[in-house]
Give the backbone structure.
Amino acid sequence: MIYLDHNATTPIDERVLEAMQPYLSTFYGNPSSLYRLGRIARSAIEVAREQVAELVDAQDSQILFTSGGTEANNLALSTARQFSRISIAATEHPSIMAPAQHYFQDNHKLEIIPVDSDGIINADNMQQSIDQGSQFVSIMLANNETGVIQNIAPYTQQLRAKNCVVHTDAVQALGKIPVSFKTLGVHLMTISGHKIYGPKGSGALIYTKDLPIKPLLIGGAQEFGLRAGTENVAAIVGFGKAAELARVELAQRSAHLLKLRQLLEHELNSIPGARVFAQQAQRLPNTVQFGITGMDGEMLLMKLDQKAVAVSSGSACASGGLEPSPVLIAMGFNTAEAKSAVRISLGKSNTEQEIIQFITHLKNIVLTNY
């Protein structure tokens, strides 16, 4: 199997699994218990909190562990309910878009910030959001489909000057580009463990201590009283170890991924009718979303699956339907163009040979179906 869908999930790193193992068997204590087994589990959680904090340039007391990015995004939007008007980017992940629409069903309270054909929020559109008095704004740092990176730090400064709370979903950016909670200047940031070779079921919301968080789960004092329920110690330990490895290996991984992405795009440009979406925009080093004129992305996905190649036609959290990519629709592409989309998301173990093999399979499929 050639696995090219790392934005959906990553295989767990063996070093991460090794770090988790003792907390699945030997050190099984409840971290809220006062006896030794409980204290060992509690200590492991706090070490992981420090590891995650170091990766994102935050204080360990700002790390609120969750079950993943979706819960962290929902927690951020639950916190936004205290405001009368919020804005979110048109290309946000479903775990932002859906709760925003749920909590703010009145369109006068929810503004969708448009993007250009490269998926970028321009200064005029952001200024309009500021002028309309939004009190909470959520902008994804790097898009999960196109890989487009938003330059949000300058906007954050403007929004803060208007006493606006800013959230960013940094799930896809983490471990691929430098991510600094401090430099971005946001109040809230979402991250996830299984996108950086950690376990599924691990994530975090990073928050400024002066912002009142509105819990989704109540009934316990865990996670500073903001997320009730016995902690998943092994998953948190794995998240911490994955964060430590991502910090140490960031430059090496990014350089490797960019080299593979450049090879992939060079080969795609040689295929008649192929188009890389947002190719001129600043993007993650591992992500390429493309379409081939006249070909359906879901069909291509299934044909490639028959060749033991795993790719995506969009967000894993939005799959299962026949609707075109809402991200590409928001960028101004028509339905046929959006339905042609295939996403390649590379990982640290992918090789140049796998890229060449993928391109060979793709060319054969295109040749057969034209």
